[in-house]
Amino acid sequence: MSWTFLAVAVWGGLWTLVSFRPPHRPPWLTVVGFFAAWTTTELAPIHLLWQGAATIGFIAFGALDAWPGWVALGITLASLFGLAASVKGAVQTDRVFVAALEDGLGPHWDADLDSTLELAGRRIRWSRVLRPFSFERRGVRRISNLQYVDDGTRRHRLDVYHGDDVEAGAPVLLQIHGGAWVVGRKDQQGLPLMYHLASRGWVCVAINYRLSPRATWPDHLVDCKRALAWIRDNIAQYGGDPDFVVVTGGSAGGHLTALMGLTANDPEFQPGFEGVDTSVKAMIPFYGVFDWTGTMRRNVGLQALLERRVVKRTLAEAPDVFRNASPLFRVRADAPPALVVHGDLDTLAPVEQARAFVSALRATSREPVVYVELRGAHHAFEVFNSVRTLHAIAGVDLFLAWLLNAARDGTSRRDAGRTCSA
Q1: Residue 248, phi then psi, degrees to nearest 5
Q2: Are 117 and 400 in contact (CB under 8 A)?
Q3: How far apart are CA 402 and CA 29, in angstroms?
Q4: Residue 195 CA to chain centroid, in angstroms?
Q5: For the domain 92-421, what is the CATH superfamily, name and number?
Q6: How far is Cα of residue 98 from the mean position of the Cα atoms in its chain?
């Protein structure tokens, strides 16, 4: 029994260790380490429960009668301490968001907001944390598989989420899934955020888009703009305001989100629908990839993927394509307001890219840029319900409430932030 306890303790302890020290190389170990670190960090309360229960059980059955059991107990206690520290860090996510909003929007950015909104964001529904893959909200319906390009293909379909009592003219959120531009579906990511916002009166649209290697860049971005064109023409019948669209997404979806904000009405990415307005009211990229050129930090695995499957040309052969596909080099003065969210332990999309992108955007854009860097967070942290996820979607809700207030006041978002700072 003591040796079994030791084996279980080492297994649990390794998962906890990787959550704080994820491997950065080689590429295959980076991916494996990411999955281990991601699931351990965001499911830390569940890991605490099973490791604690296992320890009590092993002790009850005499695992401490031999020295391996005592070693196992020491490892387990260290692991439990690490998991508790992870939970504590996640609990502080709301404070990080509020501090970032104040930094980006001004010290009195929330003066006109409903005070109950911020208070509600500080409450954690532990029932949701303990049911990490249960996303549905009462009164929210999903309309699935609407074609946004009339070709019958699955990659040109979208889902619409809205409340039963949605009012006409509701703001719209466009959700773009990630998956390294080669995998992923519209019903796999962004679900906690979309169900939350739909329950609060938003209309949310989650899209598929063509994937590589069948698709070649910039087909992915063209499809996102086609979906936005569909929203302009059709979302009113689902209660949405076609003129108030915010775009969000994570990872490759974060990359596409940023480009949606930075390439508005660019005819290069709107073949056959150049006259459609593809501007958005704000962009919210989560853990996005902002540099395809390796200028900030070269990622051999990413470069190989882009060259072989996505762009299908090398960086040396087509440097302009890689540069023009990098949000870092597309910043512009008329960029929409931005909320950029990134974890500092992200091994798949290095945080240095997010910092550089935010710095460049703040130096150029006339609109506010809010940057939230979450300590202890990995890639894809908000895909399922967790303490950090629930605080993060509440923080996004606050940003969007501020955005809506600024729009209703008829002032520019930058001026609104400055007025609050005065």
Answers
A1: -145, 165
A2: no
A3: 41
A4: 14
A5: Alpha/Beta hydrolase fold, catalytic domain (3.40.50.1820)
A6: 17
Measured in degrees and rounded to the nearest 5, phi and psi for residue 421 equal: -80, -20
Give the neighbor-by-neighbor strand order of the sheet with 203-207. Answer: 140-147, 157-163, 203-207, 170-176, 240-250, 282-286, 338-343, 369-374
Question: Measuring CA to CA, how many Å separate 401 from each of 219, 254, 396, 406?
Answer: 33, 21, 9, 9
Half-sphere exposure at residue 268, Cβ-oriented, CA atoms within 13 angstroms? 12
Classify 25 in phi/psi space as left (phi over 0), alpha (psi -120 to 50) or beta. Answer: beta
Q: The tokens of 110 are what? A: 């929330």
pLDDT tens digit sequence for 90-123: 999 999 999 999 999 999 898 888 767 766 666 7
CA–chain centroid gap for 293, Å, is 22
Tens-digit pLDDT profile for residues 199-232: 999 999 999 999 999 999 999 999 999 999 999 9
Which of the residues are catalytic? 251, 346, 379
What are the boundaries of each domain within the chain?
A: 2-90, 92-421
pLDDT in tens, 300-336: 689 999 999 999 999 999 999 999 999 999 999 999 9
The DSSP code sequence of 210-235 is --TTTS-TTHHHHHHHHHHHHHHHHG
CB of 366 closer than 8 Å to CB of 269: no
pTM above 0.85, yes or no: yes
